[in-house]
From TrEMBL:
Species name: Dictyoglomus thermophilum (strain ATCC 35947 / DSM 3960 / H-6-12)
GO CC terms in record: cytosol
Keyword tags: Hydrolase
InterPro entries the UniProt entry points to: NUDIX_hydrolase-like_dom_sf, NUDIX_hydrolase_CS, NUDIX_hydrolase_dom
Keyword Hydrolase: yes
Known catalytic reactions: GDP-alpha-D-mannose + H2O = alpha-D-mannose 1-phosphate + GMP + 2 H(+)
SUPFAM superfamilies: Nudix
Taxonomic placement: Bacteria, Pseudomonadati, Dictyoglomota, Dictyoglomia, Dictyoglomales
Cofactor: Mg(2+)
PANTHER family: NUDIX HYDROLASE DOMAIN-CONTAINING PROTEIN, UDP/ADP-SUGAR PYROPHOSPHATASE
Annotated GO MF terms: hydrolase activity
Protein name: GDP-mannose pyrophosphatase
Length: 176
């Protein structure tokens, strides 16, 4: 049930992504074109404090054209291990490093258009350091209790897939 690639054309190469167009043969023998965004992958981290509350960040997202409330996240540098990226991103975005880091889930956030893989971690036993956001990153930290997270979920205040998956894990799968 796969597609055979018969031609590949690079359409765009940027700082983070590459876009390629593939000509493929479908399982019924017909040809089609597929556009794919190649991405190095990313991590998302659910930082849980001792009292069970969770750190979130508010930041403006140009593609959505609004401020979103998200769990901390960031892209993998080429050759970087997901765990290393999770430590780095957590310290950059919220000024904490985890004493414990647990891989919760690995998923494709948008498999119809991109090969990006996202690694979702739970971070606990958090130790304060100092935020050091990227110079083009402007974040507001938000800490929510478990009850507030549940209320925000049902009020549709979480609008991106990584945060929704992290929140559902936190509320319904996590061992407290």
């Amino acid at each position: 049930m796969d597609e055979k690639i018969i031609e590949t054309v690079e359409k765009y190469k940027g700082r983070i992504i590459t876009v390629k167009e593939y000509r493929v043969v479908l399982i019924n023998g017909k040809e089609a074109k597929r556009e794919v965004v190649h991405h190095p992958g990313a991590v998302a981290i659910l930082p849980v404090l001792e009292d069970g509350s969770v750190f979130f960040v508010k930041q403006y997202r140009l593609p959505a054209q609004k401020v979103l409330l998200e769990i901390p996240a960031g892209k993998l540098d080429y050759g970087e291990k997901p765990e290393e990226c999770a430590y780095r991103e957590l310290e950059e975005e919220i000024g904490y490093v985890p004493g414990k880091l647990k891989l919760v889930h690995t998923f494709y956030p948008s498999p119809g258009i991109s090969d990006e893989v996202l690694y979702l971690f739970e971070a606990s036993d958090l130790k304060r350091t100092k935020e050091n956001p990227d110079e083009d990153e402007f974040l507001e930290l938000v800490i929510l209790s478990k009850d507030e997270v549940k209320r925000y979920l049902f009020e549709n205040k979480f609008e991106d897939s990584k945060t929704l998956i992290g929140v559902y894990y936190y509320l319904y799968s996590r061992r407290s």
